[in-house]
Amino acid sequence: MSPNGGYPVPFRLVSPEIEVAIRAAEAAADVLLKHFRGPLAVRGGKSPDLVTEADLESEALVKRIIRDAFPDHSILAEEAGLSESGGDFLWIVDPLDGTTNFIHGLDQFAVSIAHYQAGKCQSGVVHRPVTGDWFVAIQGGGAWRNGVRATVSPADELNRALLGVGFYYDRGEMMRATLDTMRVFFEEGIRGFRRMGAASLDLCMVGCGQLAGYFEFELSPWDFAAGQLFVNEAGGRVSDCAGQPLLTRRSGVVASNSRLHDELLRLIQPAWSELHSATPLSEFRA
Asked: Which SS3 state, helix, strand or coil, does residue 143 take?
């Protein structure tokens, strides 16, 4: 199942929810690979916020697999929104994170599935279909890449840190604030930035130590739900741009190896505070 031929996480940690999430992500990946680099039906015209038929087909399949296993659980999915069934259990699903990459034939895209109970993420799965990589996190059980324990970067200074960044679809104030903040980091001696285009995978790269940190001024819960648990379980830290815990709503996101988190917040918060005071984020609270 994983590139090393084993299960993505040690069997002793596999719960019914993890098993279903892995099965759903694998099925969704098959759908995405069927469409990848082939003729695509794209909705959204010239808007940068595009949706493909692959998104919709993948999401419907993931929801069906979850609903068959857990009919009483609610599901928050990127395309369909919130399907409530009541109770404390919630699944947060991104059937195709990195749609723009997908459309342009770039293989940096993923399926992201997280399971919450009483408002707290209990498990998360991020699967990169083209490479076959699996990133699985369990609350209290660690972060695992292809069955191997993941740990964050040891970098303790900015000049040793490679950071990830995301650009929101907005081409106005939020984009300018992001670029201005990147300039501040370069002035502080950052080693470099990478902009990959799939937040779930960016967060997993922080958990695996490839990136020492990552920020984006606006993400939806399906973008970060599984990835934030992966970072935390790998020894890192994730917060909103004000340093507060992430909730299941649209938010700015800062992730790090923990050692650099306060420094990242210090450099990010001036632009964030100005931006947020001018244009409050709309909430998507589940």
From this structure: strand
240-256 per-position pLDDT tens digit: 999 999 999 999 999 99
Tell me if residue 56 falls in helix, strand or coil: helix
Please state the φ and ψ torsions of residue 150, each to the nearest 5 degrees.
Answer: -100, 145
Q: How far apart are CA 192 and CA 67, in angstroms?
A: 43
Q: Which two tokens stand for residue 251?
A: 């938010």
Q: Amino acid identity of 39?
A: P
**Distance separating alpha carbons of residues 76 and 195, to the nearest angstrom:** 26
**Distance from the Cα of residue 37 to its chain's centroid:** 23
**Averaged pLDDT, 214-230:** 96
pTM, to two decimals: 0.92
Question: How many other CB atoms sit within 10 Å of the CB of residue 149?
Answer: 12
Q: What is the DSSP string of 245-264?
A: PP-SS-EEEEEE-STTHHHH
Tell me the C-alpha distance between 116 and 124, whole Å.
Answer: 9
Helix (H, G, I), strand (E, B) or coil at 216: strand
79-107: pLDDT as tens digits: 888 887 767 999 999 999 998 899 889 99
How many angstroms separate the CA atoms of 238 and 71, rounded?
Answer: 31
